[in-house]
C-alpha cells in the first residue's frame, strides 16, 4: 500500500521592477537592519487605464485640442481611471494573510497603507533588509527587488519599506532661532556700497564687488520688479483661486506670522483667506536625526508669505505632512483627489533622480490626475545646481519631482531691485564663496545655485520640442529628454525676500514659492515657451502685464 502526498503548487511571484534603490549597493552595505523595527508603508496599485489617463491629461491641457479645458471632477476621474475596489479588496486580503496590519486607503484607491515588522514585511515581499550608507546617512533598503504573488493583481510599487524618503530636502536651509542678518545691508540694490558705507568694525574691503546685499526685499518691491503691482492693484490679485502649500510639519506661529508680515509690508489681511489641515491617512513619526520640524518651519513661513505677496486676494491652504517621509506624496495625492486647490506649490525635492521606480510612478499618477482636473503643480528645481558641486567626476542630474514633465519646474535667479521698485537686473543664480585674506578675496568656490539639467528618466515633452536646444535635450546621446527648469524667478538667498517669522528679527531667504501666482495659468500642464532656453532659468522670468496677457489667453 502506498501513500501519496498532495503537493501544493508553488506560488508564482511577480517582481516589482525598479523597487531596489540604486544607492543600495554591496559596497555601501554595513549590516542587517533591525528585524523587529516597525515599518509603515504603502502599496500602490496600477490604475485601470494609465495610458488613457495620460492621453486625456495631455488633451485637456493642449490648445487646439477638442478636449482643451474639459477638465474632470475627482469623481469622474476615479470612475474612469483609478484602481478598482476589487483590486483594493484583493490586496488587503493578501496583506492580512501575511501577518501585516492594514490601514487607510484614499478615495481614489491609489494605495493601501499597511504596517508590520521588518521581518514580516521581508517575508511578505520576498526579500531581506540591510543598512547602507549614502550621503552621510545610514539608510535601510531591501537587498533585492520586491515581489508579490502574481494573483494579487495590479501592484505597481511599495513605498516606505526603504529609507529613500529620508533624502527629501527643502530649499535653502532656513535660519536657526534668533537669527538676524549681518549689517550693513541695503534696502534696495546699490543703496549701500563699499564706497559710501563703512563696515561695523572698520575693515577696508576691496572695491569689487562694490554693493552690499539687500536686507531682504519686501513684497511690494517684488511686485514692482516683476511688473505686476498695477495689475494687483487693479484687481488681478488671485481672488477666487486657492493655492495649496505643501510642506512637512506645521509652524505653530504660521497664522500670526503671516498676518504680522502682511501688516508690516502693506499687504491686505489674511483673515478669512488662510486655512491649515493635515491630510487623512498620514501618521506621526518620532523625531530623529532624519526628522527636522524646526528646520521646515522657516520653509513653510516663506512659502505662505510668498504666495500672499504675489496673490494677495487668493485663498491659501497649508497642508502639512506630519513627517518628511512618504506622507509628502500622500498629502499631494489628497489635495489632488479632493480638488482642494487650483494650484499646488512645493519647495522640496530629492537631490537627484536616484530613486527606486516605485517612488516615481505613484507620484506621476497623482500629477496626471491633477492635470486632468485642471490643477497646476509647481516644484522648485532645487538649490544644488546639477548636484555635482562643481566636481566633474560626478554625474550631473536634475532633482525629482521637478524633473517630471507633468509639473512646472521653477529655477532660481538673482535679482536687483531699484529704489523705485523696478528690475535693475536678473541673472541665473549661482553663489560662490570667497574669504577675505590680507585685503583680497580668495578664489570663489561653488556653494549652491539654481537646480537644472537633463533628466535620465523622462523623454522630452511636446511643449519643449523646438524650444530646448539639442545640446541640452540630447546631452546623453540618443533621443531628446526632459530638461529642467521650465521658468524661473527670484531664488538667490543673497538677493532674497524678507521673511517674517517669530524670532528676534527678519530673515532674508530664498523666494522660490513666489512662482505660485506668477506662473499660474488655467492651462495646468503646458507652458507655451519661447526661444532662448537655458538649463538655469528655463525660458526666463515673468515680464509684467505682457506675461499676464499671454498666460490668460
UniProtKB/TrEMBL annotation:
One Pfam match: Pro-kuma_activ
Annotated GO biological process: proteolysis
Gene3D superfamilies per UniProt: Peptidase S8/S53 domain
Name the UniProt record assigns to this protein: Peptidase S53 domain-containing protein
Keywords: Calcium, Hydrolase, Metal-binding, Protease, Serine protease, Zymogen
Domain of life: Bacteria
Cofactor dependence: Ca(2+)
Chain intervals for the UniProt region annotation (Disordered): 1-31, 379-402
InterPro entries according to UniProt: Peptidase_S8/S53_dom (IPR000209), Peptidase_S8/S53_dom_sf (IPR036852), S53_propep (IPR015366), Sedolisin_dom (IPR030400), Tripeptidyl-peptidase_I (IPR050819)
Domain Peptidase S53: 216-553
A molecular-function term among this protein's GO annotations: metal ion binding
KW Plastid (keyword) present: no
Keyword Transit peptide carried by entry: no
Amino acid at each position: 500500500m502506498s501513500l501519496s502526498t498532495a503537493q501544493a503548487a508553488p506560488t508564482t511571484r511577480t517582481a516589482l521592477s525598479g523597487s531596489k534603490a540604486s544607492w543600495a549597493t554591496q559596497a555601501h552595505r554595513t549590516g542587517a537592519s533591525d528585524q523587529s523595527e516597525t515599518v509603515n508603508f504603502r502599496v500602490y496599485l496600477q490604475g485601470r487605464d494609465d495610458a488613457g489617463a495620460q492621453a486625456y491629461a495631455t488633451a485637456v491641457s493642449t490648445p487646439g485640442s477638442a478636449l482643451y479645458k474639459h477638465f474632470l471632477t475627482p469623481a469622474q476621474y476615479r470612475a474612469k481611471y483609478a484602481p478598482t475596489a476589487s483590486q483594493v479588496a484583493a490586496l488587503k486580503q493578501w496583506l492580512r494573510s501575511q501577518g501585516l496590519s492594514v490601514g487607510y486607503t484614499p478615495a481614489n484607491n491609489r494605495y493601501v497603507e499597511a504596517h508590520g515588522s521588518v521581518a514580516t514585511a521581508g517575508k511578505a515581499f520576498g526579500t531581506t533588509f540591510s543598512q547602507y550608507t549614502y550621503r552621510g546617512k545610514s539608510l535601510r533598503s531591501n537587498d533585492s527587488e520586491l515581489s508579490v504573488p502574481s494573483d494579487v493583481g495590479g501592484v505597481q510599487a511599495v513605498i516606505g519599506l526603504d529609507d529613500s524618503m529620508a533624502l527629501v530636502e527643502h530649499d535653502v536651509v532656513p535660519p536657526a532661532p534668533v537669527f538676524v542678518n549681518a549689517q550693513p545691508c541695503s534696502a534696495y540694490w546699490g543703496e549701500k556700497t563699499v564706497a559710501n558705507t563703512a563696515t561695523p568694525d572698520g575693515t577696508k574691503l576691496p572695491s569689487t564687488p562694490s554693493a552690499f546685499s539687500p536686507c531682504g526685499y519686501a513684497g511690494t518691491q517684488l511686485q514692482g520688479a516683476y511688473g505686476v503691482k498695477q495689475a494687483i492693484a487693479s484687481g488681478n490679485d488671485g481672488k477666487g483661486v486657492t493655492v495649496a502649500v505643501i510642506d512637512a510639519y506645521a509652524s505653530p506661529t504660521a497664522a500670526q506670522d503671516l498676518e504680522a508680515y502682511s501688516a508690516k509690508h502693506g499687504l491686505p489681511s489674511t483673515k478669512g483667506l488662510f486655512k491649515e489641515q493635515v491630510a487623512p491617512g498620514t501618521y506621526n513619526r518620532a523625531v530623529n536625526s532624519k526628522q527636522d520640524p524646526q528646520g521646515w518651519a522657516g520653509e513653510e513661513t516663506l512659502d505662505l508669505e510668498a504666495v500672499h505677496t504675489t496673490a494677495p486676494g487668493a485663498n491659501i491652504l497649508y497642508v502639512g505632512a506630519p513627517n518628511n517621509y512618504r506622507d509628502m506624496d500622500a498629502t499631494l495625492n489628497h489635495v489632488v483627489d479632493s480638488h482642494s486647490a487650483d494650484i499646488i506649490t512645493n519647495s522640496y525635492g530629492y537631490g537627484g533622480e536616484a530613486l527606486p521606480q516605485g517612488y516615481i510612478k505613484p507620484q506621476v499618477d497623482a500629477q496626471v490626475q491633477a492635470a486632468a482636473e485642471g490643477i497646476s503643480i509647481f516644484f522648485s528645481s532645487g538649490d544644488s545646481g546639477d548636484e555635482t558641486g562643481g566636481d566633474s567626476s560626478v554625474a550631473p542630474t536634475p532633482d525629482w519631482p521637478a524633473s517630471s514633465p507633468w509639473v512646472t519646474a521653477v529655477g532660481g535667479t538673482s535679482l536687483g531691485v531699484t529704489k523705485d521698485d523696478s528690475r535693475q537686473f536678473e541673472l541665473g543664480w549661482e553663489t560662490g564663496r570667497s574669504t577675505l585674506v590680507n585685503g583680497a578675496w580668495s578664489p570663489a568656490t561653488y556653494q549652491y545655485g539654481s537646480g537644472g539639467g537633463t533628466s535620465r528618466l523622462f523623454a522630452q515633452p511636446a511643449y519643449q520640442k523646438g524650444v530646448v536646444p539639442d545640446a541640452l535635450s540630447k546631452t546623453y546621446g540618443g533621443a531628446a529628454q526632459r530638461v529642467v527648469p521650465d521658468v524661473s524667478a527670484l531664488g538667490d538667498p543673497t538677493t532674497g525676500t524678507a521673511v517674517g517669522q517669530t524670532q528676534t528679527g527678519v530673515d532674508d531667504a530664498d523666494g522660490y514659492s513666489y512662482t505660485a501666482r506668477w506662473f499660474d495659468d488655467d492651462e495646468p500642464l503646458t507652458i507655451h515657451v519661447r526661444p532662448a532656453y537655458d538649463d538655469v532659468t528655463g525660458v526666463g522670468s515673468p515680464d509684467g502685464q505682457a506675461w499676464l496677457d499671454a498666460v490668460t489667453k
